[in-house]
From TrEMBL:
It comes from the Bacteria. Residues 21-212 form the Glycosyltransferase subfamily 4-like N-terminal domain. This is Glycosyltransferase involved in cell wall biosynthesis. Keywords: Transferase. Pfam families: Glyco_trans_1_4, Glyco_transf_4. It comes from Roseococcus suduntuyensis. One of its GO terms (molecular function) is glycosyltransferase activity. Signal peptide: none annotated. PANTHER family: GLYCOSYLTRANSFERASE (PTHR12526), SPORE COAT PROTEIN SA (PTHR12526:SF638).
């Protein structure tokens, strides 16, 4: 492992104390993992802290943790409309005694803020983790057509304009050029999956330094072994996540209903959502839910610290997303819990779950094929066989080694300092 940077400032679009998305969890777990390993880490994260405050709001949340209010940003959350708020955040970042800034998003951080920080700290090294494809796709980075749920396989200005008819192909060509101009200024880029690295390569972006590195799950989630195999565990399926149009809950419920008609002993628990929320998104599911009756249980919200114990009450975790996904944290959690997975056969899901080793695949968005997979999973002995092969997707030391190499460019230590004096930097200039 290379000698560690003395101090790293991690900048995130959100803090997991306020929202529980994968990107903010990855940033926070990097922060805690670095600190536990004896490195100096500073976290600066966005958080909505009440009514908008002109000029912004900065708050010291905990030792080496700072919150900023993102309300002063434009509607797309890529630029600041409140210049005083941006300048206050910029001053906070410039003053940090670090030589590495690691960004986990640009959304709710701002192109203009990042560019200004790069100008103010020419002595520092800048690294970005690309958790999603917002740069490539204006549809929330989902790469799904806006007039349905057809997958989009690549960037084309005419196709983008077809999804957003109020905009021209030229708009999307300029959008791509703007993103590339910023991305090309970073010293290094980290991709949590080979899938997303390939997507950015195909889009036309090749970073100066590229690292494919899985997010760390952290040490606060500890799995306890099951005392013994529970009867019928292989027939119990579970979903963990928020109800959104892209998580595939409708595919899961329809697929489960088909499988239940063939195998009445099946059971499905849905964690993170309520029946009413699902029906607001997919009102046509009411008949399927009524027919399933108690075989489908809505478990409601859960605390992230309880997730492994909840997963171990089921035999399988199902990830039925209809968009590509990149590196779903639910897959890492299930593997640590020792629970095999059933996932859509696209994107980071297909990459992270090896068929027959970590779990099973089914055709994305295809309820009958999901029913087939559920019935195959419920076969005697199938769950036990796959559960026995579950391991963490990445270990702590492997993560730290890869992270520190990416943050330093593999060139050794970066001394602590916040003076902005370029001569203090022992790495090649960007």
């Amino acid at each position: 492992m290379p000698e560690a940077p003395t101090a790293i400032c991690i900048v995130a679009h959100a803090h997991p104390a306020f929202t529980k998305g994968g990107g903010e969890m990855a940033a926070f777990r990097e922060f805690t993992t670095l600190r536990a390993a004896g490195h100096r880490a500073i976290l600066v994260a966005a958080a909505e802290m009440g009514p908008a405050a002109p000029g912004g709001r900065l708050l010291r949340h905990a030792p080496d943790e700072h919150l900023y209010d993102p309300y002063g940003m434009t509607e797309d959350r890529l630029f600041w409309s409140d210049l005083a708020a941006r300048e206050a955040l910029l001053a906070l970042l410039v003053a940090q005694p670090v030589q590495v800034f690691h960004f986990h998003h640009v959304w709710r951080v701002g192109f203009d803020l990042v560019a200004a920080l790069m100008e103010a700290r020419p002595d520092a090294r800048f690294v970005l983790t690309l958790h999603e494809m917002l740069a490539i796709c204006a549809h929330h980075g989902q790469m799904i057509r806006t007039r349905g749920r057809e997958l989009c396989h690549g960037y084309a200005p005419a196709l983008c304009a077809n999804c957003f008819p109020e905009r021209t192909p030229r708009h999307f060509a300029l959008r791509r050029a703007t993103w590339l101009a910023l991305l090309n200024r970073f010293d290094g880029v980290i991709y949590p999956s080979e899938f997303i690295r390939t997507r950015f390569r195909d889009w036309g972006f090749a970073a100066r330094e590229e690292t494919v590195l899985e997010n760390v799950l952290g040490e606060e989630l500890a799995a306890t072994p099951r005392a013994s195999a529970e009867p019928g565990l292989g027939q119990h399926f579970a979903f963990f996540g928020q109800p959104t149009p892209f998580k595939g809950l409708d595919v899961l419920i329809r697929g489960f209903a088909l499988a239940l008609a063939r195998e009445p002993g099946l059971f499905l628990s849905l964690h993170g959502c309520e029946r009413e929320e699902v029906l607001r998104l997919f009102p046509a599911l009411e008949a399927a839910l009524d027919a399933a009756g108690p075989a489908i249980f809505f478990a409601g919200r859960y605390d992230s610290g309880d997730v492994l114990g909840l997963m171990r009450l089921s035999g399988w975790v199902v990830v039925p997303s209809v968009w590509w996904e990149n590196s779903p944290v639910v897959i890492q959690e299930a593997r640590r819990a020792g629970v095999p997975l059933i996932v859509s056969d696209i994107g980071g899901m297909a990459e992270k779950v090896r068929p027959g080793l970590d779990g099973l695949h089914f055709r994305r968005g295809n309820a009958p094929d999901l029913a087939r997979a559920l019935l195959a999973a419920a076969a005697p002995g199938r769950q036990e066989a796959l559960a026995a092969s579950q391991t963490d997707s990445i270990g702590r030391e492997e993560f730290l080694d890869g992270l520190l190499r990416a943050l330093t460019g593999g060139q050794g230590a970066i001394r602590e300092g916040g003076s902005g004096v370029a001569a203090d930097r022992p790495l090649a200039e960007s």
